Amino acid sequence: MTESQFADLAPFYDELMLGVPYKMWANYLEDLFRRYKAKPKSILDVACGTGNVSEVLADRGYSVTGVDLSEDMIEVAKTKSGRVDYHAQGIAQINLNRRYDAAVSLFDSLNYVTNATELAEGMRKVSDHLEEYGLFIFDVNTVYALENHFFDRGCMGKESYPRYMWTSEYDHSTAICTVKMLFEAMSEKGVVQFREVHRQRGYSLEELSGMMVDAGFELLDIFTAYKFKKPTRRSDRVFFIGRKVSK
Fold first, then answer.
1. What's the CA gap between 15 and 45, in Å, rounded?
2. What are the pLDDT digits (tens) for 185-211?
3. pTM here?
4. 17-37 CB burial, b ≥16 within 10 A, e <16
5. What 3-state class would DSSP assign to 8?
6. Which segments of the chain belong to CATH 3.40.50.150?
7. Which residues, given as ranges, of the chain have pLDDT below 50?
8. From the centroid of its chain, how far is CA 246?
9. Rounded to whole angstroms, what are the CA distances from 186 to 19, 81, 192?
10. CATH 2.20.25.110 region(s) of the chain?
């Protein structure tokens, strides 16, 4: 058994996420586009994973490019429709030589950037790849969620696969949440068991707001996930909406 992050998991990721409401997420994105009078034709999906959101957006007629740090996840994404342009690039290394009308990053992907300097650089890279007035929409797990063990979950008793058990520990001194994950999955060779260790950083709303402004965005709103309400101290996931402004 190995300890890694989105490597052994990649071939089984879509099975694990069968219950995730990707279409509802896309609906919320389009609600936000309408709310801020944006009509994007091209979208950059940052930290796209295996491309599930990218594919839904492509289904709806957008021209989509997906980038993700994990080569294993991108290889899975490339086996899908062929309508999305996928690249194995981290947020701070995005280099696509084109600009987009909007950029999105969902499913707490930016929490995985545990170095604040790297995340700030990543936001600048996103800004560089947006047309003027382009929207950048992303969600994050809040510090409240990470320190209160929202990652602790398991499903080991059912007969179907994959099965999993996750336990987390939050370090207040570093703001890092370490999640130890045990998986059992069905492969061509039978049942396989593997471990992954995932790390997320808890960023305050003030930290992320400052990064956005420094990267050239006007911060339009911060909402509790999938609603149009301001977050509370018990919000577990929040959305940031920014618009690129002239320098």
1. 21
2. 888 888 889 999 999 999 999 999 999
3. 0.95
4. eeeeebeebbebbeebbeebe
5. coil
6. 3-142+203-244
7. 1-3
8. 26
9. 18, 24, 6
10. 145-200
Residue whose entry in the numeric block shows the structure tokens 């030589």: 97
Q: Which residues pair with 198 in a beta bridge?
A: 179
pLDDT score of 4: 53
Q: Residue 172: exposed, middle, or buried by beta-carbon count in 10 A (0-12, 13-18, 19+)?
A: exposed
CATH for 3-142+203-244 is 3.40.50.150
pLDDT digits (tens, 9 = 90+) for 210-246: 999 999 999 999 999 999 999 999 999 999 999 999 7
The token duo for 227 is 């609603």
The yes/no answer on whether domain 145-200 falls in CATH 2.20.25.110 is yes
Residue 138: its pLDDT value, please?
Answer: 98
Number of helices (H), then strands (E), belonging to the chain: the values are 7, 12
